[in-house]
Design goal:
There is one protein chain. The chain is an all-alpha fold. It is 79% helix and 0% strand. The chain is built from 3 helices and no strands. Helix 1 (10-37) packs antiparallel against helix 2 and helix 1 (10-37) packs parallel to helix 3 (76-118). It starts with 9 loop residues before the first helix and ends in a 6-residue tail after the last helix.
Length: 124
């Protein structure tokens, strides 16, 4: 006979369903961030998306902590779905970070050139 504490119950399935929905929102948000990082948008809009992502990641960390602290069994179907969502989020987030790095390097590259152009000629 199997241990009832080790088998997922309805509450646990609902919990993992909520986790999956949160991951869907997180993926949607990081897609918006990735798109925004490749074009010019208002800083306030960009900051709001970043803040939202930080909040959702915080919620996800708390949910993960509950799973670990209570040794909750993850339904196999849900485990596959959550893992796929995490992989998708990681991929999208990497693309977002890469876009930011590219923009930063363009800014750093163009700033010294602009300074040289703005500098008055010096008499020798």
């Amino acid at each position: 006979m199997s241990d009832p504490n080790k088998e997922p119950n309805v509450k646990q399935e609902l919990f993992f369903g909520q986790m999956s929905k949160l991951l869907e929102k997180l993926i949607d948000n990081v897609k918006k961030l990735k798109d925004a990082s490749s074009k010019s948008i208002a800083e306030a809009e960009f900051d709001a998306l970043q803040h939202k992502q930080q909040e959702m990641i915080g919620e996800l960390v708390e949910m993960d902590k509950l799973v670990k602290d209570h040794a909750l069994p993850v339904p196999s179907q849900m485990q596959k779905k959550v893992q796929a969502q995490l992989l998708e989020f990681q991929k999208m987030n990497k693309e977002y970070v890469d876009n930011l790095r590219a923009r930063l390097s363009m800014i750093q590259f163009s700033a010294p050139n602009k300074l040289k152009k703005d500098k008055p000629p010096q008499d020798e």
